[in-house]
Amino acid sequence: MALVVAAAVLAAPSATAACRCAGPRSMLTSYFRQGIDSVVIVTPQRIVPSTSPSLQTYSLLRGPFPFNTTIYKGCPRNLERFSMFGPATSCFSSIKLGEPILLFLSDKRFAGPCDYNVPASALTPGDIAFLNRRTGCGSCAAGNEVQCVKAPCMLSRPCDASGSCKDNYCGGCYAEWYRSDGTPQVCDPQGSWGGWYPKSSPTPVRTKSPLRDWKARATQLPRAGDAIKLAAAPDVP
Question: Are 112 and 78 in contact (CB under 8 A)?
Fold first, then answer.
């Protein structure tokens, strides 16, 4: 989803320009949008000086809050900071330091205002189910890979004959169908697709140190999917 007023990802509109997006933000649209290099949940620690007045840069290191990074797409190396539009632009949206947030990042570590960047505490059951079936750095983000008797794509049919299928073993045996451009085939007019509200799986998820402020929410979700984990984070006292 691209900015109507921006010609490039890092070309900030003027402070007086309206910040408009081509459509509503959604998990699926943002996740599969061209230009999204990585999808992560991180905890911004502090604001750091930026080389551009139109940008606001957040550091993920050397702060007072628990360090958390979980990767749901791509494999970003040395992810130490990210940028968003700054207060001088109409696209500025403040985020809370110390609060885990889902980010859709370009290869320049930029999170645009038209993508589904939301606090982890605001994720819906469908969001969590979808993320629990994603991979980061070559493995299931939730550490929930299973073994299947047969490849899921062998037992599935597309809703569009031109599609291609990918086997997904994260949390169950799932066949996920894609269009030729890499976006998901949405067969259900209500928006259901692959990881969206999948069937419940008996496979347990190994959860590592989630933050207390949304741990209870995640573990009490209906069986639409397993709870998201935040990796490499110390428990909050």
Answer: no
